[in-house]
Amino acid sequence: MAEPKSQCCRTVYTGYCSHKCQRAGTVERDGAFYCKQHDPVRIKEKDELKNKKWEQERLKRDERWKRESILCDLANGIPTDELECYELVLKGS
Ligand SMILES: [Zn+2]
Known about the structure:
By secondary structure, this protein is an alpha+beta fold. The protein has helices spanning 40-75, 80-91, and strands spanning 11-14, 17-20, 27-29, 32-34. 52% of the residues lie in helices and 15% in strands. The relative contact order is 0.08. The structure holds zinc ion (ZN).
């Protein structure tokens, strides 16, 4: 005999009211059933992935800011037209 389908235990809020999630609970976590969307493990993994991506973007931003700051300090006191000459040489054109 097939087991009765369990319903997802999460409450869904839609504007002013809330109701129980209507989806079937496909995974069991600590005795409670969750649908794929409300699976706490999946949500945690998604959050961690998002945080990792944000952290990488933040590091990239920090790196760019650091480089710009160093270049700005190095260029300090050098006339702009001279800097443009350096830029042309460095770019090889
Ligand atoms: Zn659900």
